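Apologies for my clumsy wording, but can you show me some protein sequence, whichever is easiest, together with the matching structure tokens, please?
=====
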Amino acid sequence: MSLLEKLYSFVIFLAVVIGISIGQVEVIRTNAESLIVPLLVAMLYITFLQIPIEEIRNAFRNTTFTYTSVLINFVWTPIFAWLLAMIFLGDNPALYIGFIMLMVTPCTDWYLIFTGIARGNVALSTAILPLNLVLQIMLLPVYLLIFGGTTGVIDLGFLLESILIVLFIPFVLALLTKLSLRSKQVLRENLINRLSVLPIVFLSLAIVAMFASQGQIVINNLEIIWQMMIPLLLFFVINYMVGQKIGQVMKFPYADRTSLSLTTLARNSPIALAIAMTAFPDQPLIALALVIGPLLELPILAVISQVLLLKNRRRHL
């Protein structure tokens, strides 16, 4: 994990502060929005380039783990997220949509780091990664229509257009790049390694641009940070217990159970943010809800990885 990755929560928070600050200058505020989509497309292109999409077949070598994690991530978690959103955020459609967007997109990067820290099965977690990516790209618009279609916030045509531009175009470009470098493995690995830090940079710049253009609305609604805290904490605590219990019922060994817990806890805030900032440009509170997520998520995952290690040590005493 690089220094920038370790400071991810702080970097995202700093991007919000810088965006709101420079947005007080009118010429920046009026022009910042035009930078958001290009920055997000660049971020996701490099992100997808790092994901071994072509290895998706590896996920099905351990079918029990794959089906279990898919059911938790794409059946249980969306329903659970919807219930939490209804109970705690039902009176605020923007927060409601933002919360659901964050919770229905499983992580495709960070959880590998914390799986390694907790001595989980990193190879198994890596195998499930491309499948998580493909499924969330396919299912995100479905979840938004099912759980958010009555809010009046979602325009189906604009949502699909945004997903096409921000997700499918960089996804296809990444696949084509990988295919063109298939016979040049060393060059490909060197390229990916050199570009690895750029997604955080581009995401941070996109957040700066978004909050520069819409910062005043955020300043007028700072109380929503506290409104988001309870459902976020409940999600992580309850889903941690669910993952551990199901892992025990399925008789997974410690390493596999740890992988299951972390792949069903960590969320993919960059993809959710990319869609929010393009599909809902006039709803900055949706993006703010998605920024709050990683500010809490990374510290929580760090604590959970240590809890898992402690439980494993006690088991061996």
Q: What stands out?
A: The chain is about 80% helix and 0% strand.
